[in-house]
Request: fold
Amino acid sequence: MPKGYWIALVDVADPEAYKAYMQENAIAFRKYGARFLIRSGRAEQVEGSGRSRRVVVEFPDYDTALACYHSPEYAKAIALRTPVSAADILVIEGYDGPQPTD
Reply:
């Protein structure tokens, strides 16, 4: 079964206040078995437009990723995030099929 992912692009207006969101989202992420694959770091926007912060979070499967986003635990984190940041978040199912060959 393919894994589920959150892909988040975020602009943070108040980095100090955003820390409270990061502490709160950890509660939901632990409960739903999340694992950070990308949490900012070096990046170069090579096409299109983006935001200053990029995050990819892996979940055991798509349904778990979606359940985490809609959970009461994450709702508390959203309430802390929205006043201090702007975000685009996509919940998506991973791909578990054939890959290109050389």
